[in-house]
What does this fold into?
Amino acid sequence: MGDWTSTQTIIFFAPFALVLLGLFIGFLMRRSIRTRFRMERQLHDDPDISEWLVVFGWTRKIIYLPVIIVSLLFFIMSLLIDQPSGAMGAIWLGVFLVNFMIEEYDAGIKELLLLVLGLGGLVLWLSYLGWLDDFWGFLGCISADMNGVAYLIFALIFMIAITVSWIRGLFHYVAFTPNYINIQRGPTESGQQIGREEINTFVDTEDLLERMLGFGRVSVTFRDARMNDIRLLVWGIGKKSRKLESIRGAIVVERNKAEPI
It folds into this structure.
């Protein structure tokens, strides 16, 4: 550092200064910041509420979890073998393309069945024409050379996107109770409370891969046409959908907390 210019020194310390500034601001606002964990504690401690659910929306990049797993596996394998095989890259590319098609076209069970039937028809057609062996040979020749660092970079890119959506979900969430929902759209007291008679909720689990990974959609529509619908990609959809059904079937009568005269 002795040979650095003043500009280089400032640039080096700038990230640390930003982190310290963020911690200082967070310390000053610690009483006004409303995370979903704080909301859950608040609802848990409320004696008038016995049923409640707090959910946030994950990024749809979460469905690339198979790509992340394969990337990390191939990264480890690349450290253990001297020369990574081009077949590994081809397998990774195939997994990525399948995930990409599912994300792009919102593939469900019907689309998957059509794809399987289409591939089966293609195999029968090639077999009837005597081209099946040549086709398998062509697929076997596909090679995509990638080093271990590339697998790790791809895994980190998707993991960062998923982590950012989790952090955002600390401050952007929806809390359901029998009498109202609370919509939070920021780190401070910027929530909006809406009565249950003004909303409709439903659960969507048609996307096959999302459901296999434990995800589903929780949607909220409003009678007020000026408000935009809310659609959240939620993890643990099986348990949360049952909880939401229980909340919708309950009505809470608030206690009279006034002191007797």
About this structure: The radius of gyration is 26 Å.
